[in-house]
Design a protein that fits this description.
- By secondary structure, the protein is mainly beta.
- The protein has one domain.
- The strands form 2 sheets. It has a 5-stranded antiparallel sheet. The chain has a 3-stranded antiparallel sheet with strand order 3-4-5, with no helix packed on it.
- The radius of gyration is 14 Å and the shape is elongated.
- The structure holds zinc ion.
């Protein structure tokens, strides 16, 4: 059983107070249920970040996470949030102001 991924941390939405789990995507380092590595044969460059697509994560539905993007897991959803946007929207539970 491999529940819980060590890469995932808990964050709170600054506006709604909702708790989410999220991890910064790094190919080969980030193990998130439902997010797959793009196969090595897909060696195109990403239109967003210019890096090879094989360094990306593929979410259910096909959305790609660029290296350094945050993947935010809700109850039944996984979304990609750009660095910067993520820090503005979410606060890490550990180390925040209590
Ligand atoms: Zn990209």
């Amino acid at each position: 059983m491999s529940r819980g991924s060590p890469a995932l941390k808990t964050f709170t939405d600054r506006q709604t107070g909702a708790a989410v789990r999220a991890a910064k995507w790094r190919a080969g380092k980030t193990d998130i249920p439902g997010v797959e590595l793009v196969p090595l044969k897909e060696n195109d460059r990403c239109r967003d970040c210019g890096q090879y697509v094989m360094l990306h994560g593929r979410l259910p539905g096909g959305r790609l996470a660029c290296p350094g993007d945050w993947i935010v897991l809700g109850e039944k959803t996984a979304t990609v949030v750009r660095p910067g946007d993520f820090e503005a929207k979410y606060e890490e539970d550990d180390g925040g102001i209590l």
